[in-house]
Amino acid sequence: MTVTPSSIGQGEVGLVTVKAKAFEPDVTWLNKKVTLAFSNRDNLWTGFFGADLTTPPGRYKLKVTASEVVNPGYVTVTVLSKDHGIRRITVPREMVELGSETLARVRKEIKVVKEAFTRPAANPLWWGSWRRPVPGTVISPFGCRNIVNSMERSPHSGVDLRAPARTPIKVTNRGIVILTANHFFSGKSIIIDHGGGIHSMYFHLSRISVETGEVVEKGDLIGLTGSSGRVTGPHLHFGIRLDGRRINPLKLIEISGRLERP
Q1: 126: domain range?
Q2: Any idea what the CATH number is for the domain that residue 148 is in?
Q3: Domain containing residue 54: CATH number
Q4: What is the pLDDT of residues 134-151, one digit of tens each?
Q5: Which residues are registered as beta bridge partners of 65?
């Protein structure tokens, strides 16, 4: 088993590679199974593991077991404390101080999103390296503390990428569309299930070009950027969940560059 890197920060991701011929090795991390993709070219199984923003710093065992695995056992991975900084924004009061009708809408939308995450595709649909959905630079980083109208809110669970309105958005990897919606906070939104416990999210769109249940290939057009929902201007909010954990999507893209198409 090979693990890269040997330490990750809160909200970051690592890559595990296991050599085995016939059966998928059983790899676990933080009490959850790590789903692996197989390459028959070199008999390698590969997968991603990550630490949530709130995973306590410490040393954790990444365990592997299987009858045909070369050198089964475990590798200790250190999760480091990470300061993601602070983001201060100002929005109209009605976007923060919600009336009873709006609050009921928001609660319903939160439930819809949670339900979407509870029905993951079991097998990996993705392959090879992951791509940026738009080329723009980061204007709001992952994990930063959110101060909205001088009040602290939930930390930023994705990255905001600079993009003029109506910039084409291309899906980061192969997957199936599990949610298209127009929500109060995230605006026109798409969530894609890539299998193996990985989901990608695209918020604040001006146009959605896919439908729920549609299979999309890496690089396919899925919509156009915009400024729908609670925003101060056009951009793309891009997020990744790995086994339910909030991770920096740009870290996944970076480390996936080590992979080649099976």
Answers
A1: 86-256
A2: 2.70.70.10
A3: 2.60.40.10
A4: 999 999 899 898 888 878
A5: 26
Give the whole-angstrom CA distance, residue 24 versus residue 38.
8
3-class secondary structure for 96-139? CCCCHHHHHHHHHHHHHHHHHHCCCCCCCCCCCCCCCCCCCCEE
The amino acid sitting at 75 is V
**Which of 32, 63, 80 delimits the end of a domain?**
80
Model confidence, pTM: 0.92
Domain assignment present for 161: yes
Residue with the larger pLDDT of the pair 71 and 8: 8
Q: How many domains does one find in the chain?
A: 2
Mean pLDDT of the chain: 90
